[in-house]
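Async update (no meeting this week)

Hi team, since we skipped the sync, here's where things stand on the single-chain job. The sequence we agreed to prioritize is pasted below, unchanged from the tracker. I ran it this morning and attached the output directly underneath so nobody has to dig for it. Comments welcome in thread, and please keep replies under the output.
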Amino acid sequence: MRYIICLLLLTNTLFAQNFDTVKIRPQRVTDNIYMLTGSGGNIGLLLGSDGVLMIDDQYAPLSQKISDAIKSLAKNNLRFVVNTHVHGDHSGGNENFKKQGATLVAHEQVRVRMMTEQFNKRFNRTTPPRDKDAWPQITFNTNMNFHVNGEDVDLIHLGKGHTDGDLIVHFKKANVFHAGDAFVRYGYPFIDLSSGGTVNGFIKTLDKFLLLLDENSKVIPGHGALATKADVKLLRDQLADIRDQVAAAIKKGTKMEDIAGLGITDKYDEKMGKGFLKGTDFVMMIAESLSAK
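Output:
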Protein backbone atom coordinates (compact mmCIF):
# COMPACT_ATOMS: atom_id res chain seq x y z
CA MET A 1 0.00 0.00 0.00
CA ARG A 2 1.08 3.57 -0.66
CA TYR A 3 1.05 4.55 3.03
CA ILE A 4 3.65 1.86 3.71
CA ILE A 5 5.87 3.39 1.06
CA CYS A 6 5.37 6.81 2.70
CA LEU A 7 6.38 5.45 6.07
CA LEU A 8 9.45 3.77 4.66
CA LEU A 9 10.45 7.02 3.01
CA LEU A 10 9.91 8.83 6.29
CA THR A 11 12.07 6.32 8.14
CA ASN A 12 14.85 6.63 5.58
CA THR A 13 14.65 10.41 5.78
CA LEU A 14 14.96 10.35 9.56
CA PHE A 15 17.99 8.09 9.46
CA ALA A 16 19.59 10.23 6.76
CA GLN A 17 19.05 13.60 8.43
CA ASN A 18 21.95 15.61 9.74
CA PHE A 19 21.47 15.76 13.50
CA ASP A 20 24.35 18.28 13.71
CA THR A 21 21.97 20.94 12.40
CA VAL A 22 19.16 20.19 14.86
CA LYS A 23 18.57 22.76 17.59
CA ILE A 24 16.90 21.86 20.87
CA ARG A 25 14.52 24.67 21.73
CA PRO A 26 12.91 25.03 25.17
CA GLN A 27 9.43 26.45 25.62
CA ARG A 28 8.19 27.37 29.08
CA VAL A 29 4.81 25.84 29.94
CA THR A 30 4.69 26.72 33.67
CA ASP A 31 7.24 27.92 36.23
CA ASN A 32 8.93 24.49 36.38
CA ILE A 33 7.55 22.60 33.36
CA TYR A 34 9.09 22.97 29.91
CA MET A 35 8.64 21.48 26.47
CA LEU A 36 11.74 20.83 24.36
CA THR A 37 11.50 20.54 20.59
CA GLY A 38 14.20 19.27 18.27
CA SER A 39 13.88 16.22 16.03
CA GLY A 40 11.44 13.52 17.06
CA GLY A 41 8.81 13.62 19.74
CA ASN A 42 8.30 16.60 22.02
CA ILE A 43 10.16 16.32 25.34
CA GLY A 44 8.60 17.34 28.65
CA LEU A 45 10.67 18.49 31.65
CA LEU A 46 9.68 18.86 35.30
CA LEU A 47 12.38 20.81 37.14
CA GLY A 48 13.07 21.10 40.85
CA SER A 49 15.24 20.24 43.82
CA ASP A 50 14.41 16.52 43.63
CA GLY A 51 16.07 16.28 40.22
CA VAL A 52 14.77 16.56 36.67
CA LEU A 53 11.97 14.31 35.41
CA MET A 54 12.08 14.05 31.61
CA ILE A 55 9.30 12.72 29.37
CA ASP A 56 10.75 11.12 26.21
CA ASP A 57 14.28 11.65 24.85
CA GLN A 58 14.17 11.81 21.02
CA TYR A 59 17.06 10.27 19.01
CA ALA A 60 20.37 9.07 20.45
CA PRO A 61 22.56 11.50 18.42
CA LEU A 62 20.74 14.39 20.11
CA SER A 63 21.38 13.31 23.71
CA GLN A 64 24.25 15.73 24.32
CA LYS A 65 22.27 18.65 22.94
CA ILE A 66 19.31 17.67 25.11
CA SER A 67 21.60 17.43 28.15
CA ASP A 68 22.98 20.88 27.41
CA ALA A 69 19.46 22.28 27.12
CA ILE A 70 18.51 20.76 30.49
CA LYS A 71 21.63 22.20 32.12
CA SER A 72 20.71 25.65 30.82
CA LEU A 73 17.36 25.40 32.62
CA ALA A 74 18.04 23.35 35.76
CA LYS A 75 20.60 23.29 38.55
CA ASN A 76 19.84 19.65 39.40
CA ASN A 77 20.74 16.45 37.54
CA LEU A 78 18.44 14.36 35.41
CA ARG A 79 16.86 11.72 37.66
CA PHE A 80 14.08 9.98 35.69
CA VAL A 81 13.29 9.42 32.00
CA VAL A 82 9.75 8.33 31.16
CA ASN A 83 9.03 6.83 27.72
CA THR A 84 5.50 7.48 26.48
CA HIS A 85 5.86 4.52 24.09
CA VAL A 86 8.42 2.35 22.31
CA HIS A 87 9.21 4.29 19.13
CA GLY A 88 12.79 5.43 18.65
CA ASP A 89 11.97 9.09 18.09
CA HIS A 90 10.73 9.09 21.70
CA SER A 91 13.08 6.58 23.32
CA GLY A 92 16.24 6.63 21.19
CA GLY A 93 18.34 8.32 23.86
CA ASN A 94 17.57 5.83 26.63
CA GLU A 95 21.03 4.27 26.74
CA ASN A 96 22.76 7.62 26.90
CA PHE A 97 20.64 9.01 29.70
CA LYS A 98 20.86 5.81 31.71
CA LYS A 99 24.65 6.15 31.55
CA GLN A 100 24.21 9.63 33.02
CA GLY A 101 22.45 8.06 36.01
CA ALA A 102 18.80 8.43 35.04
CA THR A 103 16.25 5.72 35.84
CA LEU A 104 14.16 4.63 32.84
CA VAL A 105 10.39 4.24 33.33
CA ALA A 106 7.70 3.01 30.91
CA HIS A 107 4.70 0.76 30.45
CA GLU A 108 5.47 -2.96 30.65
CA GLN A 109 4.80 -3.43 26.93
CA VAL A 110 7.55 -0.96 26.06
CA ARG A 111 10.10 -3.08 27.91
CA VAL A 112 8.74 -6.29 26.36
CA ARG A 113 9.01 -4.87 22.84
CA MET A 114 12.49 -3.50 23.45
CA MET A 115 13.68 -6.83 24.84
CA THR A 116 12.41 -8.97 21.97
CA GLU A 117 12.78 -9.12 18.22
CA GLN A 118 9.92 -7.34 16.49
CA PHE A 119 8.52 -8.27 13.08
CA ASN A 120 6.53 -5.72 11.11
CA LYS A 121 4.33 -7.69 8.74
CA ARG A 122 3.40 -4.70 6.60
CA PHE A 123 7.03 -3.60 6.17
CA ASN A 124 8.25 -7.21 6.01
CA ARG A 125 11.01 -6.03 8.32
CA THR A 126 12.53 -7.50 11.46
CA THR A 127 13.92 -5.24 14.17
CA PRO A 128 16.40 -6.77 16.62
CA PRO A 129 16.08 -6.22 20.38
CA ARG A 130 17.33 -2.91 21.74
CA ASP A 131 20.52 -2.83 23.77
CA LYS A 132 19.89 -3.82 27.38
CA ASP A 133 20.78 -0.33 28.58
CA ALA A 134 17.74 1.00 26.71
CA TRP A 135 15.26 -1.21 28.54
CA PRO A 136 13.03 0.53 31.11
CA GLN A 137 14.09 -0.36 34.65
CA ILE A 138 10.73 0.42 36.24
CA THR A 139 7.50 -0.64 34.52
CA PHE A 140 3.80 -0.85 35.31
CA ASN A 141 0.56 -1.95 33.68
CA THR A 142 -2.13 0.65 34.39
CA ASN A 143 -1.10 3.63 36.54
CA MET A 144 1.96 4.88 38.37
CA ASN A 145 2.56 7.97 40.48
CA PHE A 146 5.52 10.25 41.13
CA HIS A 147 5.62 12.86 43.88
CA VAL A 148 8.61 15.02 43.00
CA ASN A 149 9.51 18.69 42.80
CA GLY A 150 6.32 19.70 44.59
CA GLU A 151 4.21 18.07 41.87
CA ASP A 152 1.97 15.00 41.77
CA VAL A 153 2.60 13.20 38.49
CA ASP A 154 0.33 10.44 37.21
CA LEU A 155 1.49 8.06 34.47
CA ILE A 156 -1.69 6.71 32.89
CA HIS A 157 -2.15 3.85 30.44
CA LEU A 158 -5.52 4.42 28.75
CA GLY A 159 -5.42 1.33 26.55
CA LYS A 160 -4.18 0.32 23.10
CA GLY A 161 -4.19 3.24 20.68
CA HIS A 162 -1.12 4.46 18.83
CA THR A 163 0.66 1.36 20.23
CA ASP A 164 -0.13 -1.07 23.04
CA GLY A 165 2.19 0.68 25.51
CA ASP A 166 1.09 4.33 25.31
CA LEU A 167 1.29 6.61 28.34
CA ILE A 168 -0.28 9.95 29.11
CA VAL A 169 1.55 11.94 31.78
CA HIS A 170 -0.49 14.24 34.02
CA PHE A 171 1.14 16.97 36.09
CA LYS A 172 -1.86 17.30 38.38
CA LYS A 173 -1.17 20.54 40.25
CA ALA A 174 -0.13 22.36 37.10
CA ASN A 175 -2.99 20.95 35.00
CA VAL A 176 -0.48 20.04 32.29
CA PHE A 177 -0.44 16.82 30.26
CA HIS A 178 2.12 15.14 28.03
CA ALA A 179 0.20 12.94 25.60
CA GLY A 180 2.99 11.22 23.69
CA ASP A 181 1.71 10.04 20.31
CA ALA A 182 -1.73 9.30 21.75
CA PHE A 183 -2.36 12.87 20.55
CA VAL A 184 -0.37 14.59 17.80
CA ARG A 185 -0.70 17.75 15.72
CA TYR A 186 1.24 16.94 12.53
CA GLY A 187 -1.83 15.77 10.59
CA TYR A 188 -3.31 12.29 10.24
CA PRO A 189 -1.92 10.25 13.14
CA PHE A 190 0.07 7.08 12.54
CA ILE A 191 -1.53 4.01 14.12
CA ASP A 192 1.15 1.36 14.56
CA LEU A 193 -0.82 -1.82 13.96
CA SER A 194 2.30 -3.97 14.26
CA SER A 195 2.91 -2.63 17.78
CA GLY A 196 -0.63 -3.31 19.00
CA GLY A 197 -2.28 -0.06 17.91
CA THR A 198 -5.87 0.09 16.65
CA VAL A 199 -8.08 2.87 15.31
CA ASN A 200 -10.87 2.03 17.76
CA GLY A 201 -8.36 2.03 20.60
CA PHE A 202 -6.94 5.36 19.44
CA ILE A 203 -10.38 6.98 19.56
CA LYS A 204 -11.22 5.38 22.91
CA THR A 205 -7.94 6.70 24.30
CA LEU A 206 -8.87 10.21 23.20
CA ASP A 207 -12.33 9.79 24.77
CA LYS A 208 -10.75 8.85 28.09
CA PHE A 209 -8.18 11.62 27.76
CA LEU A 210 -10.91 14.22 27.25
CA LEU A 211 -12.47 13.24 30.58
CA LEU A 212 -9.22 14.27 32.30
CA LEU A 213 -9.03 17.66 30.61
CA ASP A 214 -10.73 20.97 31.35
CA GLU A 215 -10.79 24.27 29.51
CA ASN A 216 -7.60 25.44 31.26
CA SER A 217 -5.53 22.29 30.64
CA LYS A 218 -2.32 22.58 28.64
CA VAL A 219 -1.41 19.61 26.47
CA ILE A 220 2.08 18.77 25.19
CA PRO A 221 1.40 16.59 22.12
CA GLY A 222 3.74 13.92 20.87
CA HIS A 223 4.48 16.20 17.94
CA GLY A 224 3.41 19.77 17.22
CA ALA A 225 2.54 22.90 19.16
CA LEU A 226 1.07 23.12 22.65
CA ALA A 227 -2.62 22.31 22.63
CA THR A 228 -5.90 22.58 24.52
CA LYS A 229 -8.88 20.36 25.22
CA ALA A 230 -10.58 21.79 22.13
CA ASP A 231 -7.69 20.58 19.95
CA VAL A 232 -7.93 17.06 21.40
CA LYS A 233 -11.71 17.03 20.86
CA LEU A 234 -11.29 18.16 17.26
CA LEU A 235 -8.88 15.32 16.44
CA ARG A 236 -11.12 12.80 18.21
CA ASP A 237 -14.18 13.86 16.19
CA GLN A 238 -12.27 13.86 12.89
CA LEU A 239 -10.95 10.35 13.49
CA ALA A 240 -14.36 9.04 14.55
CA ASP A 241 -15.97 10.50 11.41
CA ILE A 242 -13.38 8.92 9.12
CA ARG A 243 -13.51 5.61 11.01
CA ASP A 244 -17.30 5.48 10.79
CA GLN A 245 -17.29 6.10 7.05
CA VAL A 246 -14.68 3.42 6.45
CA ALA A 247 -16.64 0.98 8.62
CA ALA A 248 -19.82 1.73 6.66
CA ALA A 249 -18.04 1.10 3.36
CA ILE A 250 -16.69 -2.23 4.61
CA LYS A 251 -20.16 -3.21 5.82
CA LYS A 252 -21.58 -2.47 2.36
CA GLY A 253 -19.08 -4.89 0.88
CA THR A 254 -16.74 -2.33 -0.71
CA LYS A 255 -13.50 -3.98 -1.73
CA MET A 256 -10.47 -2.95 0.29
CA GLU A 257 -8.65 -1.65 -2.77
CA ASP A 258 -11.61 0.61 -3.63
CA ILE A 259 -11.99 2.30 -0.22
CA ALA A 260 -9.17 4.78 -0.84
CA GLY A 261 -11.04 6.18 -3.85
CA LEU A 262 -14.24 7.06 -1.99
CA GLY A 263 -13.09 10.56 -1.05
CA ILE A 264 -13.71 9.97 2.64
CA THR A 265 -11.03 12.40 3.82
CA ASP A 266 -11.45 15.06 1.13
CA LYS A 267 -12.81 17.66 3.55
CA TYR A 268 -9.86 17.14 5.92
CA ASP A 269 -6.97 16.84 3.48
CA GLU A 270 -6.13 20.55 3.19
CA LYS A 271 -5.17 20.77 6.88
CA MET A 272 -4.53 17.18 7.96
CA GLY A 273 -2.79 16.05 4.80
CA LYS A 274 0.29 18.18 5.51
CA GLY A 275 1.95 15.39 7.49
CA PHE A 276 3.69 12.33 6.11
CA LEU A 277 0.37 10.44 5.88
CA LYS A 278 -2.07 11.49 3.18
CA GLY A 279 -5.81 10.98 3.45
CA THR A 280 -5.96 7.93 1.20
CA ASP A 281 -3.09 6.34 3.13
CA PHE A 282 -4.85 6.98 6.43
CA VAL A 283 -8.12 5.54 5.14
CA MET A 284 -6.39 2.32 4.14
CA MET A 285 -4.68 2.14 7.54
CA ILE A 286 -8.08 2.41 9.22
CA ALA A 287 -9.56 -0.20 6.88
CA GLU A 288 -6.73 -2.58 7.76
CA SER A 289 -7.27 -1.96 11.46
CA LEU A 290 -11.02 -2.55 11.25
CA SER A 291 -10.56 -5.69 9.15
CA ALA A 292 -7.94 -7.25 11.44
CA LYS A 293 -9.04 -10.32 13.34
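Quick observations from my side:
The first strand starts at residue 25 and ends at 28.
Residues 1-15 have pLDDT under 50 and may be disordered.
Reply here if anything looks off.
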